[in-house]
Amino acid sequence: MPQTPRTAIIPTMEKSRPLLGVSACIFSGERILLVERSQPPYAGILSLPGGKVEFGEALESAARREVVEETGITLGALAFLKFHEILIPEHAVHVVLAVFVALEDVDGTTRPTAGDDARSARFHTPAELDALHRADRLTDGLIPIVQTARAFRQS
After folding, report:
1. Is residue 98 within 8 Å of 50, Cβ to Cβ?
2. How would you list the strands of the sheet with 50-52, edge to edge?
3. Pick from 116, 94, 112, 107: nearest CA to 50
4. If exposure means fewest CB atoms within 10 Å of the residue's CB, which of 25, 30, 75, 150 is most exposed?
5. Please, is 138 exposed, middle or buried when counting C-beta atoms within 10 Å of its C-beta (0-12, 13-18, 19+)?
6. Percent of the chain with pLDDT over 90
7. Tens digit of pLDDT for each residue in 106-146?
């Protein structure tokens, strides 16, 4: 019986698959770094810096790369925080995010520089975060993720 390469026997997937992404909670004191998205379906919405994982890329490496691309900031020590799932069926969006937390604060004089698909990037105070949440300007689930990251860093 002739041998068949493994790729020849993998069936073609008819349906879309979830996208694997990463994000990072980055603090400067009490302030959290957020980026404003420029592309649909999140255009104008603020989220943690992050994005897609490239094939063959480790999750932590992807988080570091995305943070540099979107904010210009190079991170020190990171820890995995949790997985977060985003489902928006009306936009055919299904993303599974590996969320990381920076273990060291970014110096208070560091100014993020928006890049890639980020329209803007800056640190926000807890009061600003609450106001953005009330104005429905944050990605779903962002507040609990930030709270979990704060608690993780304090433990």
Report:
1. no
2. 50-52, 19-25, 93-102, 78-88
3. 116
4. 30
5. buried
6. 66
7. 987 888 988 878 789 999 999 999 999 999 999 989 999 99
